[in-house]
Design brief:
Length: 179
């Protein structure tokens, strides 16, 4: 069986009782949450009158059906490139210094992902922008990473572009600092 198009998206199907509409709506919702709104809408439209087995097969082509691996367990063949918590030439929340650091750090990472997409466009191939918890002697902080499957050259190239060409300032992409 081939890997799904979006291997980092997991959809649990407990209690669906062979209901194709339920499966289609869960998959579409997961795609939208992961930032693939158009793909989610297209999937729902495509699956509107489809039989349950067709919906399941198509869903398996797009996402992983089942439980997400435990936190910290890497998907087989998955790699990532660290991009940073915010644009390189900007001030960012400081672990052990800023009050409410987790909230500020999370907000910066979420907005940095938006900024990267504004500058470089949406992810391609298996590339997926997200955050990763990093350990530090003062605690845990989050950083933006670009994950991709080792076998996907297009995803790797996007990840390397993120590392090299991510916005250096918020203003570069018409944004203000989130905190």
């Amino acid at each position: 069986m081939l890997d799904p198009m979006f291997p980092d998206i997991f959809v649990r199907l407990e209690g669906h009782k062979n209901n194709g509409a339920y499966v289609a709506s869960r998959v579409a919702r997961a795609l939208r949450i992961a930032g693939h709104t158009r793909m989610g809408k297209d999937f729902l439209i495509e699956m509107f009158d489809a039989d349950y087995p067709v919906v399941l097969i198509r869903a398996m082509e797009l996402v992983n059906l089942g439980e997400k691996p435990q936190k910290g367990v890497k998907m087989p063949g998955e790699e990532y490139v660290e991009v940073g918590p915010s644009p390189a030439n900007e001030e960012c929340a400081q672990l052990g210094v800023d009050e409410d650091f987790p909230r500020k750090n999370g907000a910066e990472c979420r907005e940095f992902i938006v900024a990267i997409r504004r500058k470089l466009g949406p992810e391609v191939g298996t590339a997926r922008l997200g955050t990763k918890a990093m350990n530090h002697e003062f605690g845990v902080y989050r950083e933006v990473v670009c994950r991709y499957q080792r076998s996907d050259r297009e995803g790797l190239e996007y990840a390397l572009r993120c590392e090299k060409d991510a916005p250096r300032t918020w203003a570069e992409v018409g944004m203000s600092p989130p905190c």
